[in-house]
Write a structure and sequence with these properties.
The complex is a heterodimer of chains A (379) and B (258).
Chain A lengths: L3 E4 L3 E4 L5 E5 L1 E3 L4 H11 L7 E4 L3 E4 L1 H17 L2 E4 L3 H10 L18 H36 L6 H11 L4 H24 L7 H39 L2 H7 L4 H40 L3 H11 L2 H27 L5 H32 L3
Parallel strand pairs in A: 3-5, 4-6, 5-7
Antiparallel strand pairs in A: 1-2, 2-3
Helix pairs in contact in A: 1-2, 4-9, 4-11, 5-9, 6-7, 6-9, 7-9, 7-11, 7-12, 9-11, 11-12
Chain B lengths: L2 H5 L1 E12 L2 E12 L3 E6 L5 H8 L7 E6 L2 E2 L5 H8 L2 E4 L11 H12 L4 H14 L16 H12 L6 E5 L7 H18 L2 E5 L3 H7 L2 E6 L2 E6 L1 H5 L4 H8 L1 H5 L4
Parallel strand pairs in B: 3-8, 3-9, 6-7, 7-8
Antiparallel strand pairs in B: 1-2, 1-4, 4-5, 9-10
Helix pairs in contact in B: 4-5, 4-6, 5-6, 7-8
């Protein structure tokens, strides 16, 4: 009787000459895979110079078990030679299927070491952002060329989709824009009056409200709400059309995607955003008026008289003039990102996020530039 | 049919009723799938082939009827048991349904990681074996699904559905959208793999070549029921207008049926 040097539930190693005998036992299935793998790792040293692998004791075998047997044989082969015996006919096909060992190739994409990764990502993000901005600018140029081209042939403007877009981005945004403006106006009066009353100057909240709301807050908040609401919708709509090859179909039918998809949205939002801003201004004033009445006992009539005295038309004009520019930024970001969608729905989600982030960022940057400009021209 | 075969029924569907709103898809459907066979399910568009598959794998709750897999009524299983039962099946969805944020090998490792504790090295080895079993080149292992062609995606999805060594394999239109060479290759792969692994296959298809080359028996869906379940040469002679048109058409002749 040969000496048993190693014994587990799955593997039994008997010392022999010239090579040891390894008997496989039990169920070599996926449930026991890790236990078998551990046993194999422990056995491999004991059978260093080659072995006969006896499969007669195997009670059950699946592909995982077959892979394990192949692993074991390959490991022994590095040192000596492995001979497989006693394979029952039902397992022959299975083992034949698995017998050739696939060379070790990577199963995951290459990863950079942790200390390089953040630097690399930062650099890549910067390059991507500048490239994206440059492409956005050229897209804006393309859209504007198409837009001015319509001056020569006005028939290219598609009225029906434009009116549809005006409803979607303008009319249907009135609820949320109005509500937010009303609340912001009220909060501004509420907080402003607390601070100003320390100087006994609480009536100046009307100046505060009028100037901030009309010049900045009204248009900026409206633009940000619209960017989140409609900019993302533009990306999603155009992006899903892109995924379904509808844009390609459009091109083959002799339609220009810029004319069909971008211009109606651009014109609709350039008309609607100033209107929404005007509406937001009114709602902001109404909110402030209500708060002033409740908190400071300034009646709406007095509020209006004072308001007309201190707030000039310039403040309103400075605010509203920015709206069409913001509209152009939101539409070009939304449509550009939509047209850049490709491959999978994954990209669509990513592009939608990018479109909203980019358009809000650019709207604020543009607003800052406008502020500098208006200060310079003393408005 | 002798007694042993009756006992050896893996999937037994009795009186299945499914509907979407007022639209009844199946009305009292009965079906048996025997152990180790490849059953092809055919039927016109909208006859409820995919619905039947979804009902059997439990993605869709039937209005009435019982579905037994390995003798267990699927509606009486507890959450734990149904989780356990699902490990015995592999499902290949029509578009592969690979997780798009993972590589092919990582996709195969998902079920292994979920159900077993294995070393990464062993999982890598298993994943590579499944990749080569599915007839994919090995460099596909670290590619993302979006970088693969349609045929390769199907093979990768097949590799994932085989990851847990299932006893039953559900295939939803495995050759749809493949070119004839790719489809023939995939047919051969299914036949060879499932026969050598001893898997029972439930296969929904439109493809006459697949029926002819792969399936042991063919079940024809129509009129909200199963019209006939038999080997292909018997089904071909079955007296029903749809069956006659389906198997008597020019495409059937091209596939070598009749």
């Amino acid at each position: 009787m040969a000496e048993v040097v190693y014994h587990t539930d799955f593997i039994c190693v008997e010392e022999g000459s010239p090579s040891s005998l390894v008997r496989f036992l039990g169920c070599w299935t996926i449930e026991n895979a890790q236990a078998i793998d551990n046993a194999m790792a422990a056995t491999i040293n004991a059978v260093g110079r080659g072995a006969i692998l006896d499969c007669t004791g195997i009670a059950g075998l699946d592909t995982t078990g077959a892979v394990l047997i192949r692993r074991f044989a390959a490991n022994i082969d590095e040192a000596g030679a492995a001979v497989l015996t006693g394979v029952s006919s039902e397992y022959k096909e299975l083992l034949a299927l698995i017998s050739s060992k696939p060379p070790p190739v990577a199963t995951e994409p290459e990863q950079h070491p942790w200390h390089i990764k953040p630097v690399l990502e930062l650099g890549e993000a910067f390059l991507r952002a500048t490239a994206s901005l440059a492409r956005l600018l050229s897209f804006l140029g393309l859209v504007l060329t198409r837009l001015f081209g319509t001056l020569l042939s006005p028939g290219r403007i598609r009225l029906t989709p434009m009116v549809h877009q005006m409803e979607a981005v303008g009319l249907k945004a009135m609820g949320i824009v109005g509500l937010i403006s009303f609340l912001i106006g009220a909060v501004m009066v509420n907080q402003g009056s607390i601070q100003l009353s320390k100087f006994g100057a609480d009536v100046f909240v009307i100046d505060l409200l009028g100037i901030t709301q009309l010049r900045e807050m009204g248009v900026l908040l409206t633009a940000i709400i619209v960017a989140g609401r409609s900019g993302s919708a533009f990306t999603a709509q155009i992006g899903s059309m892109k995924l379904h090859e509808e844009i390609d179909a459009m091109k083959t039918l002799g339609m220009n995607p810029i004319d069909v998809l971008v211009l109606p949205r651009l014109l609709a939002l350039m008309i609607c955003l100033p209107l929404l801003t005007f509406y937001a201004d009114i709602m902001g004033m109404a909110g402030g008026m209500a708060m002033a009445w409740g908190q400071l006992d300034i009646t709406p009539a007095n509020f209006l008289i004072y308001f007309r005295e201190v707030i000039s038309f310039d403040h309103y004009a400075v605010g509203i003039i920015k709206a069409p520019f913001f509209a152009a930024v939101i539409v070009s970001c939304g449509c550009y990102q939509g047209l850049r969608v490709e491959h999978s729905a994954d990209v669509l989600g990513m592009r939608t996020t990018m479109s909203v982030v980019q358009s809000i960022f650019l709207v604020i940057v543009l607003d800052a530039l406008f502020a500098m400009f208006f200060t310079a021209v003393d408005l | 049919m002798d007694g042993t075969q009756i006992n050896d029924i893996v999937i037994r569907v009795r009186g299945l009723v499914t509907s979407f709103g007022d639209n009844v898809v199946h009305d009292g459907l009965n079906l048996d799938v025997r152990r180790g066979e490849i059953l092809g399910v055919v039927g016109g568009s909208g006859s409820g082939k995919s619905v039947l598959l979804r009902a059997i794998i439990g993605l869709l709750k039937p209005k009435a009827g019982t579905i037994e897999i390995n003798g267990r009524d699927q509606t009486t299983l507890t959450g734990e048991e149904s989780q356990q039962a699902r490990r015995e099946w592999g499902v290949l969805f029509q578009d592969g349904a690979l997780f798009s944020s993972l590589t092919v090998a990582q996709n195969i490792k998902v079920p292994l990681r979920e159900h077993f504790h294995m070393s990464n090295d062993l999982m890598d080895d298993l994943a590579r074996s499944k990749v080569s079993m599915a007839g994919l080149p090995l460099d596909a292992a670290c590619k993302f699904p979006s970088d693969l062609s349609g045929g390769m995606r199907k093979r990768a999805a097949l590799a994932r559905s085989l990851a847990l060594d299932p006893k039953i394999l559900f295939l939803d239109e495995p050759t749809a959208g493949l070119d004839p060479i790719g489809a023939a290759g995939f047919d051969g792969l299914i036949r060879e793999l499932t026969k050598s692994l001893g898997i029972t296959v439930f296969l929904v298809t439109h493809d006459l070549d697949t029926l002819y080359r792969v399936c042991d028996r063919v079940a024809v869906l129509g009129d909200k029921k199963l019209l006939v379940t038999a080997p292909l040469d018997e089904v071909v002679t079955f007296d029903h207008p749809w069956v006659k048109e389906y198997f008597g058409g020019p495409r059937a002749r091209a596939a070598g049926i009749n």
